[in-house]
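Researcher: Structure for this, please.
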Amino acid sequence: MVRIVQVELTEPAPALPEGGPARLLVRDGGRPVAFLPVTVPAAGLAPDEVTALIRQAAPDRAATLARASATPGRVPTATVVVTTCVASASLARTLRGVRAQTVAPVQTVVVDNRPATSGVAEFLAAEGFTEVVLVREPQPGLSRARNAGLAAATGEIVAYTDDDVVLDSRWVESLTSAFAQDERIACVTGLILPLELATPAQLIFEEFGGFAKGFQVRDFDLHEHRGPGALYPYAAGVFGTGANSSFRVADLRALGGFDETLGMGTPALGGEDLDIHLSVVRSGRMLRYEPAALVWHRHHPDERSLRRQIHSYGVGMAAMVAKRWATSPQERRELAGRLVAGLRHLLGPGSPKNAGRTRSYPVSLTVLELAGVARGPFAYLHSRVRGPRKAAA
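Model: Predicted structure, token format:
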């Protein structure tokens, strides 16, 4: 088990009395600036030792903090959309996190994607979430659920998260402030850190890559803010993750929302967030990654679920690429020109995707991921041919 400890630089550091592995989330004025792996000796660490360790290991934060302190314009209003298909304690925890925001959203929407059997409506009433707008989307599929939330949104921004996360209290504030700093920004993604690292499967998922995209504010577009590498903008994972993703409502509607042939609940098993982030950038709009918009995600604790997740990621990524290839002659040419770079990114041991994996990383997971990649184009074709499934009677 790896302990997760939060340390605020503007306050005295805590002591770490127990030995063993730990991760330190370092904040500066509330803003996350580093997530440091440390091994605490058996005798523990005194507060001054913790401070010295952080000063030695924490990266230069000047650029990020300067960007974060930029004077914003008018801050837009936000609708928070939580997608779910089952009544659960984690859903209630997520909604309590929405209530505890430093900047309250103008609307909270829960989209029930299994309304016939989920019990969500009764659960919300029993738990006293009377402010929540419940939207029923009986057609299965995460993209359909997110589009139903988009249709119901009354805020200028729609912020999506899942029912298995814990929201930092400044999540909405950080998202809306980012949009206020530049009218060109159509999408803001945020930082996702592990809620716990208590099992081998959760540690392996972090070695796989986890969800975090670093602690620097980054802008992405097709011109002055291009990402690194020959794959850009098709290494779409650099943009962020759907469980912490927000959009200007007008822009997302203009782009047609999420592609309903992609995502969980379809044969494609995922790829809908990769697809919409890529669509934002290729449309000439700007996407910002803002690590101050933090949520905590509980990774799957068991190996079976992890194996299924890794395979699904391979399927979803390749299904997204197949969709772009099939629907756009221009992108077909762009993708063909990036084929060699894509194979190096996927298979090269030193690529940004694989560089963080140790020799102990299970070969079987790599095989499952690659099997998913091979399956992805066929899964996308199946999803297109099949169309939306009918809801259960």
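Researcher: Any notable elements?
Model: The domain at 78-299 is CATH 3.90.550.10 (Spore Coat Polysaccharide Biosynthesis Protein SpsA; Chain A). The chain has three domains: 3-59, 78-299, 305-385.
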